[in-house]
Records
---
Amino acid sequence: MAKTGGIIVQSCPNCGSREVGRIGSDHYYCHDCCVEMSELEGGLVIHQVEEDGTLVQIDDWS
């Protein structure tokens, strides 16, 4: 379980995995589906990590 500001990340919101680790201040990474999460304005922003290391925001995730 990882905690961001007021948000507790118990599992990845993209794939449901519990393999979420902290990679920086308010930045987290899911080891199973390779997405990066960060807290922004009280919400969680999800980015897909591309092969070249760039981040692409995922607008529609469940």
---
Amino acid sequence: MNVSKDFGIVLRKDAVEKKSINLNSIMKEFDFEKYLDESNDLISLGPFFGGDNADECMRSLELLGLVYIDDFLS
């Protein structure tokens, strides 16, 4: 799995699906046309342009109902 070394975020796919979260709003907000990478279990987002941008995405993920560490990591 490809993970951005520059402020990347990795999400557990089962957490996203279990909580019925649609990541389209995140993709649009951060101008991503597609995931950086995806496996059967994980979704990789990034690279983000600076720590502040990655922090904004993490806050957005939390507002959608995902929990840092349990559901995603940066």
---
Amino acid sequence: MNNTAMNLNNFAEIRKIGLEALKKALGTVGMIRFIQQYENGIGDYTKEKYKQKDFKLDEIDIMLRNTKKRDKK
């Protein structure tokens, strides 16, 4: 990064300099992994979490067993 003044009102410039700093500190793969942790996602979790089906423990057990069987194939 250079010593010139940064325009803190220019979001594109802030993002560019921030990505450069992350890449320098973490490397390319580390930078990508860091950014993936902060993905915005979609939807409204606070509303949608109440719409999810409440599974019984035996249903969860069956789903996990089916997943393990599928992964072994």
